[in-house]
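Sequence in, structure out. First:
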Amino acid sequence: MTDATMLSGRTRGRRASIVLGLLLLACVADGQAQPAPARPAAAPPGGGPAAPVLVSPEVRPDRRVTFRLYAPRASEVGVFFERGDQSMTKGEDGVWQVTLGPMEPGSYRYGFAVDGMSVTDPRNIETERMQVVTRSILHVPGAAFMDTRDVPHGAVGVVTYFSTVLKKFRRLHVYTPPGYESNAERYPVLYLMHGANESDQSWSTIGRAGAILDNLIADGKATPMIVIMPDGHTDQTPPVITGARSPLRAEFTDVPKEFATDIRPLVERRYRVLTDRSHRAIAGLSMGGRQALDIAFANLDQFSAIGVFSSGILGEAVADWEQKHLTVLEHPELRRGLQTIWFSTGTDDFLLNNSRSTVEMLKKHRLPVSFDETAGAHTWVNWRRYLHEFAPLLFR
């Protein structure tokens, strides 16, 4: 190999090295020009470490429940229930937590108070939309009648409709029993009303209506039925009390009209429900119990059973309600086919006297009334059990 050839090879090698070096420099420069990678989605605003992965609520086998919330900049955090609250302790990682219990089996509404502001639990997807607020829902298992069991399950759907009475779009929840989608059968129907400050979602969340019906049907204790859960409030804004005006006046006038004009016709068009009296019932708790009475007594010949949970005549004197419905109360033909007006109220319930006076008035007119004064107060602890006891009486 000549000196010229060797020199040419060395020159080509140097050129290749220079080109490779320039390429490497270009790559480094290009990498420096790119924006920095985004911070993890869980990082707090303004930077800082990512939020730790939390489990909240954590329900333990002994029914103790631990609540956790990542709020590193908060100065005071607590967890609140409908009837009480508990302060939480902050750890070095910015996580506040507290363990409560053991708690009785059941479903509970709760939320966090963060420096005076109410928030839902960001780690819990189970929520309930009440009349004007949203709450997180916790279920503590241990009560077989309302736990989610390995049995055939029905479905809970949401239906939006236009209310010609209220002149706006509304919604209701519907439970259809196991097998409804795969057959052509017609089913009896129970209309189930919620209480004040709640919504059409309440019976299917904290009320556990779907699980209760699934279990009753699987155990052969209840007839498969469709359950319609309407919105018992006319608006999401709580009514203002002015003078002697009842804060629930619209709920006791417009909702029964909407039921007859919009809800029942919609249900009977859209769902395979039996439409004779013996296969139609209505029930409600608190405010919804009064609504159930109003709706049923407006068309008593069309309902076979009425359930009144922790309620009675509310918002007016029992004697005034009695006078308005006297023709129906004294009509023997209308009473035929009415199997039961089923009342149940806790002995610590603030509406116990309303229940007692309403039951006494209905018995005076020889209606088939039953009344059970149970333990407990004006809470879902009782209302879930009342549904569990009332549903097996229907459509037999």
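Second:
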Amino acid sequence: MYEEISQYVRQLIAESSPSRTAWNIEKVRQGQPASWNYIDGCMMTALLSLSEITGEKAFFDFVESFIDSFVAQDGAVRTFEAEKHTLDDINEGRVLFPLYEKTGKEKYRLAADLLYRSLSGQPRTSEGNFWHKEIYPHQVWLDGVYMAMPFLALYGKTFGANVEEDIASQLRVIQARMRDPRTGLYYHGYDVTRQAFWANPETGCSGNFWLRALGWFSVALADLGEILPSGKARDTVTAIFADLMRSLLPFADPATGMYYQVVDQGARPGNYLESSGSSMIAYAMMKGARLGILPPEFSLRGKKTFEGIFSTCLSFSQDRMHMDHICLVAGLGPESDRRRDGSYAYYISEPVVQDDAKGVAPFLLSYTEILRL
């Protein structure tokens, strides 16, 4: 039924190289060459998962070639700037672990060490959480959980670093500060100082529930549930994960199983069913059920969402498939960009594109869960 998906991936790979990827729409639009970044990192993670489940070596080979072009023999990572202290740039490092395991190349271990040292020096809030970026001081974003925590957990699992309680502690703070008790949903961002122009002066939280932020958070929790060893830290993660998945259910579109760009606002004028965050939630629900963290019925809910995306957001023309309804980007601030204020009007104003890895990669991850059923 889904044969077109693998062909779509092959087409994207054929149009990509280590110097330019077809799925990084931000860079394509700006005419910039490839760099070490989370967008390509998401796609590398998806390609590795797809290679594992389908046995298609070409997917693995592309990832190895791509990462090889950035990682030097001494572990230095081309274009990575540790001094910027941005969690986004940690994400691509998670593919270093399976590459190291399968190829034995020492440079992958050295690169993982480099990123781990950088993350160890990441500024933290007064409550112990990583700043999302140096340019966003004292701020915690849901996005950053996905960007940093699976890498940190994989490093601990692979090289024996004691990271589990740090991960759990940061997640407990996020649950305490960013979870809305009425809906069970999480706000996009939180400023400990409550000084950011977008922050609620009493809670420090941003004003709305952005779907992809919740999607990043969901995927991170599902992946951590697989990576972390049994114990108190994993128990913390799985409890937060199960609560969030239950909280999301009432907001699914009944017809498609998809979710809205601003999750709790339904068919309000301007709101739309968004494919990247919906793919992330589909993946998280199916994976959570497969791991036994969630009840079996969540597998069916995730599958319905996947099928809704497939029927609603995939288009076919001249033997070519495209994925639509992808929010290109959204964020909070900085001070110099007050348009990004976390309002409803802001989230629905960002460009909607097709074939961007922020949507394609999680859709492919959800597809790997379909293949495991």
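Remark: The first strand starts at residue 139 and ends at 141.
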